[in-house]
Design goal:
Helix content: 25-40%
Order of helices and strands: HHEHEEHEEEEEH
Oligomer: single chain
Structural class: alpha+beta
Radius of gyration: 17 Å
Number of strands: 8
Strand order of the largest sheet: 2-3-1-4-5-6
Distance between the termini: 39 Å
Length: about 190
Amino acid sequence: MGFWDTIFGRSKRVEPNLDALFALPTAALTLEASAQMHPTGVGAVCFRQAEGGPFARLKAEITELLDGAEPEESRDEFGYTWLVVKRAPDDMAALCTDLHAVNSSLEAAGFGPSLLCTTIGLRSDDARGLALVYLYKRGTFYPFAPVDSRAQRRDNALELQVRALVSGDLTIESDVSRWFPVWGAPGV
């Protein structure tokens, strides 16, 4: 970054680091031991809506990469597409590998600018939901803990507790204003 970039307040774009997804199993173990939060076995990749032949072929390639386990596709109310991957809740490493493969395939096919986030669902012993969210364009994670999706309330205290617990395992997004809610995210 040069002198003029500093003067005009421009910042260097952070490159996504998809390999950071492989730190999620360690973070999940930390949350199981410290907060009784357990993986749901559901993860998802969210990106701007894509249609047509190229995306259909890409989805078929992704299915092959996932050993024939076809990811479920859904669209949210904001027009984003979610590719949902499911594994056994105790096989977090396989889930992260699958999510990495989905992200990498989308990126390689030119959908990188459309990628929004990747989520991993967790649930507590008392049925509280939590998502660890990876922001593709920032290369960082944050926790999202919905309490009531209809009223759009979230458990900020739990989110801050999770941030403290997993900050040694994951690169946490320092700007809390970027911890946007992912209401209705699969697996939460």
